[in-house]
């Protein structure tokens, strides 16, 4: 840990909620994410700090002395951030679209198009929050969310955007070092990079008629992290075409085997109630852009 680096802020928020509420379950409800996601974020923060923050009990979690000291500091800091935001807001209301979005999509597809969106919608400002674990959005903080998964995983799924093809990718150098791979079954002999406990790889293999039950020794917080590891030449990751089309076109990544399948979809989540004209415009724009690029 560097003294000049901020800790992962989503992990800090998860820790703060669990500390205030004394429970991963209640923290998951407060932040609209899954209970395992709270646990992963807390573990990530503990590893980053090098200390134990909680004692786990049958009834919830209790702060350790080190955790209690750390929470006092970060709770005060979070309060200052909220107050600073209120003070910074102009007297006249501005048009903001607050978007929570899975990190890979945010970084690799959405952010490069921000300037074009601003030109298409003059006066509209965008606040984009990458978050890999949310399952619904709260209208107090978010106007809409973009997730990647199955429809039954989410509340208030407003629109399905696109169901992209999924395939294994690696660097050309990695593929050259392990020799040509001709079929999906060949992949299990190699270093597979995971974003979960093996579920996504198992789902992909099942779609190809192969029944494997892979476990992961190392998992990454989101698809963007996993793809970055693959881009560094450390193994083979699953990717969808939305996230890696530019890298494939440029030759920085290649398909490990030339086979693909559609598994999950990008979806829009919204709070209950009516949407603003800007939110409706943005959803329509997303659907048009993604369908033009990946719908066929």
TrEMBL record:
The keyword Transcription regulation applies. It comes from the Bacteria. Keywords: DNA-binding, Transcription, Transcription regulation. Residues 7-64 form the HTH lysR-type domain. GO terms for molecular function: DNA binding. It holds the Pfam family HTH_1. Belongs to the LysR transcriptional regulatory family. This is LysR substrate-binding domain-containing protein. It comes from Pseudomonas juntendi.
